[in-house]
Amino acid sequence: MDNDLDLTALRGFRTVLREGSFSAAALALRVPKSTLSKRVADLETHLGVRLIERSTRTLRPTQEGEVLAARADRLLGEAEDIRRALGESGGTPRGHLRLAVPQVIGNLLIGPIAASFRAQHPEVTLEIHFLDRTPDLLEEGFDGCIRFGPLEDSTQVARRLLHGQAMLVASPTLPDLDQLRHPTDLPRFPMVGLATVWAGGLPLQNGSEEISLPYDPPLRLGSHLAVRDAVVVGAGVAALPGMIARAEIAAGRLVRVLPDWSTPRKAIYFVYPSAQSVTARLRAFIDHLAQELGED
Questions:
Q1: Cα–Cα distance between 79 and 59 in angstroms, integer?
Q2: Which DSSP symbol is given to 110?
């Protein structure tokens, strides 16, 4: 019997445990559920043990599965470091990068950034996924990702790209905008927001002055781009990131309201698994990304 351990199957097994089901794991790994099920079954056959106990509603690792899961992260991490190191000599960027970015950055910015990077580094191929969740970099095989806010995983490394904050905007045709002089006036205006709203209200600041307003928009949409489009046609006032609002403001389709007020600044980071995982191609991409994005 071949004694080599199939790392693809091992990653699949680890992802099934993390996601809690074969369906969710298949979605995370972007493979058919039947393919993932076969990989795990083949891994069990190869090892000669049952790794997962399945029922119609739940699954859990067996004792042998728990032993393998405890070692899988280290094995997958070391394999990923080896993969990243291969194919690069003399520090010349070459090879493949698999990255994840939030939908809003992907839809608005990443196309021309990726194209200009490829023009400078034609020996590097790019695969960029648009995800609003934070991926597990090692288990899902990502070289890095862009994300908002601080890190929860202290083993990862992050480089700050820029700070972002949201500004209050509305269509210039929205009635009674001249009566909007302070954040406490906002409850008298229709609001548009994301389906997932700020916990604890809408935080706004003006220098050292801070306020948090009750925030329950009657219109909630699934993306900042949809919120922008609704506000452009007069649906109400919204807090939009500058990268989304500025073009519409320049074109006269939106105006800033309460221009001295904005949400607190939030850092945007590029995150990668470890300092040892940085290859020449990844370093080149991060540098290019930071140069193209600049500060918000």
A1: 27
A2: I
Q: Is the pTM of this model over 0.85?
A: no
Q: How far is residue 173 from each of residues 107, 115, 201, 250, measured CA to CA in Å?
A: 27, 38, 26, 16
State how far the Cα of 3 lies from the Cα of 272, in Å rounded to an integer. Answer: 31
Taking the CA atoms of the chain, what radius of gyration do you get in angstroms?
23
Of 82, 106, 114, 88, the residue nearest 281 (C-alpha): 88
The position carrying tokens 């994301």 is 194
Q: What is the mean pLDDT of residues 270-283?
A: 84
Rounded Cα gap, residues 32 and 30, in angstroms:
7
What is the longest distance spanned by two Cα atoms in the chain? 78
Rounded CA separation 129/103 (Å):
9
**pLDDT surpasses 60 at 87:** no
In angstroms, the CA 110 to CA 121 distance is 16
Give which of 97, 147, 91, 88 is closest to 118, Cα–Cα: 97
Confidence of residue 125 (pLDDT cuts 50, 70, 90): very high
- Report the distance separating Cα 284 and Cα 74, nearest Å: 26
DSSP string spanning 257-276?
A: SSTT-BPPPEEEEEEES-GG
Tokens of 189: 């205006």
